[in-house]
Each structure stands twice: as structure tokens, then as C-alpha cells.
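>> received
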Amino acid sequence: MGTPRQSGALIIMPAWNEAEAIGDTIRNVQTIVPHHDILVVDDGSKDATARIAAEAGATVLRLPFNLGVGGAMRAGFKYAIRNGYSRAIQVDSDGQHDPHDIDRVLAGLETADISIGARFAGRGSYDAKGPRRWAMVVLAKVISAVAGTKLTDVTSGFRAANLKGLHQYMEHFPAEYLGDTIDSLVVAIKSGCRVTQVPVEMKARQAGTPSHSPWKATIYLARSGLVLCFALARPRTKSPTDVVSPTTGDIAGENGAAA
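>> returned
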């Protein structure tokens, strides 16, 4: 494990072809929460995402090819542990997550190991309609029962983790292509991590287009239901405190890191 940081958390931004938005997103975050460090995990982008992120002041891990959010986040968790961070938070590189909510979501770690920035918990105007919304409601009810606490937005990627959560994620966060937020959350709960949620607001993308059309979003959430079944059937994992910290060479893209 690295030397413990005296203050601040690590903000992890997985990014794939976000050259249009990543620079402004980083600068906005730095302005509002300058006490935190930013790590951009460039997930095999074909554009100038890595260069622009580094020029904006972020540390950058460059993955040689696109692994999906799961693989990018696992690299970020390993980096956080190795470099002594006791807290980390995932923030979208397209600017949809309001930086003003970062410290609020991190504050949820005072009572839990994983804190979710929830879009449907009484703040903001974000909404989802039709089958996508119905699936999200069902998933939230099932996982709330597993967690023993009310959760309204279990598909949110705006999440923070303390050291226990980071170790659990590092070992068990699904790293396959399009690693699933549902799977990672259920496995964390079954391994003994406590989960809470904090109401947040969502902003419009700063640039580019959403990766999911309504139809693709529906397919994704239907897939999430299947993933949920597999996650619930998985055996309980070992205690995160038994997991060995990453060493040199364990972090994908580290050789291409640039501050």
C-alpha cells in the first residue's frame, strides 16, 4: 500500500473518446474541489482524450485498447490503493456529474463503505421513462432488500468507496467489457460492504452524444436484470482486508501514465 494521503480523495474518470468534453470537465472539477486529485483512465481512445486530460492537469493512465468501464475502473482502484488514497470516487468524464456533489457523496462514507450518488432521491430534475425506468425501479427494490437499506438508483456510476470498498472493488469489480454496476454492487454487499446513497443532480453532457439510445438503454437494463440473477447466485467473496495491495506492473496502462 502507498503512503497514506493526509487529505483529499482520488477522483477517477474513465474516458473513451471524450476529447470534446474532458478538458472542461477536469477544469470545472479542479475549480470546485481543488483539494482532490484527478486520475483519467483513457480507455483506448482514438482521439486526443489522453493528451487533453494531461494538459488540463490530470494524471492519465493510458490503456492500450478499449476494455470498457469495468476494466478502466479496476485500473483506477488499483492506482488509488497503491498511491495511498483511502477514498476514491468515480466521476463521468462527459461532465454530467455535478462537481458540487462530489464532497457530498464522499461524506456518505462516514457511515458506509460505498456511497452512491442517487439521481432519483429528491434532488434535481433527472428522469427516465418507460421500460428503462421500470427496470431501474425493480432493480433498486431487489438490491435494497439485499443491502438492508433503501436504494433508489443502483445503476448510478457516481459512486465513492472507502479503503474497504476499494479493496473489494480491486479484487471483484467486473472487468469484462461493459462491466456492470449492478454486479459490482451486489458482490460488494455480499462481501460485507455497507452501502448508502446521497441525492445528487445530473447535468447535461458538455459535448458529444450519449452512448445509449433509448432502445440500447432498454437492452442494457434488461441485461442488467440477467446480471443481477448471476450476481445474487455468486458465493460470498473473501474479506477485502485479506486482499494483497497491487505492486508495480499490476496496473493496466501504468507504463503510459503521465501527470
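>> The beta strands are 10-15, 37-43, 59-63, 87-90, 114-118, 159-162, 195-199.
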